[in-house]
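Entry type: protein chain
Record version: 2
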Amino acid sequence: MADEWQKLIKATASLTRNGRKLSDQLLNLRGSVIHSYPHDDIIQRALILHVPDNRHYIQILVNEINGSYREGFYNATGALLRRLFESLLIDALEKNLGKESTIDESGNRLTFEKLIEIATANLTLPRGSKKFLQDIKKLGNDAVHGPRSVLTKKDIDDHKRNIRKMFQELTAIAY
């Protein structure tokens, strides 16, 4: 199957997106091919192709989420998912409400919980978004701060469909 993936990458070399070869999109920043297959990914590669190049941190986070999930590092996956959705909320809020919507009066970044409150009150998000974002926040917090908590594949899989859906929604709003 790896050979088929390599053929696909070569076959897409003539396609371009914003003057950049599509095959370049399938490479990580170190220049090595990312060996993933669509059925293994939490967030499919096709979903990150429209994320602007100046938001490379989103592309890197998606690659790390998919890689940690494939390798069975579910605590890392949970922590990275929390970080991804917090970043997407910040980008969406700053684009739609201005940078001041994401910082407090002292100039500090608002907490993820506060960002969720502002986003769900001011952005057009699908029904159930607030609960989903709070669940992702809890998943990430458990992964990082739960001294005896160990996330399992099921913990991540329970959210896979909504992860893709919310990723699409937030990227459409933010970019």
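Comment: Residues 55 and 175 are 9 Å apart (CA to CA).
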